[in-house]
Amino acid sequence: MELIIKDVVKTFDDKVILDEASFQFEKGKIYGLLGRNGAGKTTLFNCISKDLSIDSGTIQLEEDMEAYDFSDLDVGLVHATPTLPDFMTGYEFIKFFIDMNKEKMPNVRTPDEYLAKVGIKKEDRHRLLKDYSHGMKNKVQMIATMMVQPPVLLLDEPLTSFDVVAAHEMKELILSIKKDSVVIFSTHILQLAQDLCDEIVVLHKGKLTGFDPNKIHTNSFEADIVAMLSDEEGKPQDAVVEVIGESDDE
Which residue range or ranges hold the ABC transporter domain (predicted)? Predict the structure, then answer.
């Protein structure tokens, strides 16, 4: 299975965010999406998940050489800022999610098993979600999305709010799902991209460009990425990755 993005254009007022962007993402690989602040990474994710309409072009899945349109139910999008019901406990939310989606879930487990998988402690599972930390909310959001094993999994700035142990647990979870899904995550942390990614895709000036996979683990990786995101040769611009500048909303 492949996710095919072809000649996608998306504008807001007079600003072109995606300019005939094209790329082919394969199941079984983890893709890191890198770009400058405001490049349109979140916009691209919202277009793939059908939260935003595109102006022109196509976004389709392809299997056995047959391209087809897909529904928003085929895409799992983990937002950088979790949106969860404040009035439910972590346990209640996961139980509700299981009840609503069990027909789509290949191996249904108990709420406790799912929450344990992302390191939510027993004493926290029956607390209201409104009292969870940002990192805990992110864990609940991520496990809920992964439980249904969607064909396409989009992770918008994952792991940034996790401590070292939790980040390791989530990395293992992401790796475990890639064999059945197209996995794309945006990040400003180059080390994370190097650790997790099979391929890197750069979004710059509205275009999607693949990065040579053979160079991901070389000493020149950071410099090569900065060069790709520079407006002028030899003059890298602001905020490419975490070590250069902090991310902001797109």
Answer: 3-230
Q: State the pTM of this model.
A: 0.85
User: What radius of gyration, in Å, describes the C-alpha atoms of the chain?
Assistant: 18
CATH number of the domain at 2-85+151-228, out of 1.10.8.470, 3.30.1640.10, 1.10.760.10, 3.40.50.300? Answer: 3.40.50.300
pLDDT at residue 248 above 80? no
What is the Cα 133 distance to its own chain's centre? Answer: 20
239: left (phi over 0), alpha (psi -120 to 50) or beta: left
**Mean pLDDT of the chain, nearest integer:** 86
